[in-house]
Amino acid sequence: MTIADFTPTAVATIPAIVQRARDAFDSGRTRPLSWRRAQLDGMRKLLEDNSEQLLAALAADLGKPAAEGWVTDIGFTIGEIKLLQKNLRKWTRPERVSTPIVALPGSSHRVAEPLGVVAIISPWNYPIQLLLSPAAGAIAAGNSVVLKPSEIAPHTSTVITELIQRYLDPDAVQVIEGGVAETTELLAQRFDHIFYTGNGRIGRVVMEAAAKHLTPVTLELGGKSPTIVDATANLRVAARRIAWGKFLNAGQTCIAPDYLLVDKKVASTFIGELRAAIKEFYGDDPKQSGDYARIVNGHHFNRLTSMLESGSVVIGGETDANTKYIAPTVLADVNVSAPVMQDEIFGPILPMVEIDNVAEAIAFINSKPHPLALYVFSEDDRAIDAVIERTTAGGVTVNGTILHISNPNLPFGGVGESGMGAYHGKSSIDIFQHRKPVLRKSTKVDPSIAYPPYTEKKMKLIRKAV
Ligand code: NAD
Fold this sequence. Notes:
The protein is an alpha/beta fold. The protein folds into two domains: about 5-220 and about 415-435, Aldehyde Dehydrogenase, Chain A, domain 1 (3-Layer(aba) Sandwich); about 225-415, Aldehyde Dehydrogenase, Chain A, domain 2 (3-Layer(aba) Sandwich), CATH 3.40.309.10. It has helices at about 15-25, 35-50, 50-60, 65-90, 130-140, 155-165, 180-190, 200-210, 235-245, 265-280, 300-305, 360-365, 380-390, 425-430, 455-465, and strands at about 95, 105-115, 115-120, 145-150, 175, 195, 215-220, 225-230, 260-265, 310-315, 320, 325, 330, 350-355, 375, 395-400, 410-415, 420, 420-425, 435-440. Bound molecules: nicotinamide-adenine-dinucleotide. The site of nicotinamide-adenine-dinucleotide has 28 residues, from α7 and α8. Nicotinamide-adenine-dinucleotide binds near residues 122 and 222.
């Protein structure tokens, strides 16, 4: 299958593209549930009808195995869309709240209204999920959207743009392709909400641009997600679950375990279990495995290979610049001040730091910015509870990795340096709609107690009522 060449949107046309989305919103046609349903149907059909083409684009950009592409990009997004379709009426209808005596007779509601025009700027690692899943929420809430896929995954950007133009409302759903220049122009426009997923450095650029228009933002950022393995942990299960979460998409996952904090009493046994798990998943030579992805580009390949110097390679370590292959790698004897322990790794390199106990792990985590995810492997409930209570993270999976993202009843997002705002499930609608408080009065009675002149008698009654 050939994929057309990536062509960035002409910068000069961007203001008019955003205006077209605004005109569509202002016309009122994105508000009825019928429009929202039609768009969600269209988005679902887009994914279902074209899954082969989309998987080919993911393979071209990231060497993404089809099973991973299906589960984490296409299937995940279809699941989110289905949930929005099922609950659309329930999650958008007015919520009745009680009315205090001073406002009676009357009724009070929180009425949901769309925000207007929403910009969604996404990264390259899960380029379908991270573009369409927030877009589905914004559309379900009745907004117009302007989508900006990542130029670092150019095949997916090209395919998804063509499909969006074919399947979705050509006015209310716009796509802008490109990198820094195009996104800078996009961010100069006025939006009613900006939803950005990517690294924290650009998160700051986005927030600064948003401030000019006083536009609220959701920032889905990254960071170093710690993974604790204590002395009581089921080491075999821990190794399999950590290896899966780390080497999925060759480690290019925002909530991948970034580094290990392993009790030194079990460290060498645990390395043995990790070695066995990696062999079980990817065979003797992971390079030959069809189930292992590649690094997205030369820049990230070079950044990652330089991190291999940060410790002793105990598993993996092989690289191939031509195919942007880096083997599933584990580093031991890692110094906490080494580069691999300073920046988010975002690749298949797993450094291990040995600790004496869980308290030391907690202190280490608390000396760093709040991570996006945190994992703890233990059979000791008290240790697990201590980790949950005494640390802060965007989300936690206990005795597993990645999986908290799979539950749409758990809002997904970061805290502090790992982001602000959360989505998935009901939260995906909530962040894109304003719950407008409306108090509706009856005119049948109009007691004069509320009005001047404020007599002694009225004051007594007012004191009782208010
Ligand atoms: P990226 O390079 O694709 O950048 C993200 C988006 O920002 C792209 O659309 C890009 O065009 C745009 N951009 C780049 N430079 C810009 C600039 N100067 N001005 C305006 N826009 C600009 O992706 P990335 O940032 O390398 O993505 C990886 C990071 O994202 C990691 O830190 C990862 O943890 C994080 N991430 C977070 C989540 C999450 O859900 N919280 C998901 C995936 C990735």
